[in-house]
Amino acid sequence: MVHELSSSPSTAIIVMDASIKNDIATFISHMHITNHLVIKTLHHVTFVTTTEAKLFMIRCGINQIYTKENISKIIVVTDSIHMAKKIFNTLSHSYKCYAVAILSKLCHFFANNQNNSIEFWECPS
């Protein structure tokens, strides 16, 4: 399904994962456009919560896509779908700075074209 969707030059797919071990968060994201790896990002951060790590990971992925031309559909594949839901409910958590940063980019993305879309797909670890 991912290969079929990523054959469209206007669809960007971000696949991401995060984990914390010994107080070090590691998160990685792969961004594909037309079945080609465009960006691979690896981050290591110390002393953050799992929530902070996963929201930061989603934020980085959205930021990377935002800079690409002619993208009208974003698909985010993550094992953190509950974090993605928190982005759209800024009243429910204490990580509003992440949500605001993500929503700001998405606001511009949707303002560019009302037919632009984003989907979050859950892929358990």
Gist of the model:
It is built from four helices and five strands, in the order αβββαβααβ. It is of the alpha/beta class. Strand 1 and strand 2 form a beta hairpin.
Task: Characterise the protein shown here.
This protein has 125 residues and is of the alpha/beta class. It has one domain (2-120): Ribonuclease H-like superfamily/Ribonuclease H (Nucleotidyltransferase, domain 5, 2-Layer Sandwich), CATH 3.30.420. It has helices at residues 2-5, 50-66, 81-87, 96-112; strands spanning 11-21, 24-33, 36-46, 73-78, 117-122. It has a five-stranded mixed β-sheet, with helices on one face. Strand 2 and strand 3 (36-46) form a beta hairpin. Helix 2 runs parallel beside helix 4 (96-112). The radius of gyration is 14 Å and the shape is globular. The mean pLDDT is 81.
Q: Which tags fit this structure?
A:
125 residues, globular, 36% helix, five-stranded mixed sheet, Nucleotidyltransferase, domain 5, alpha/beta
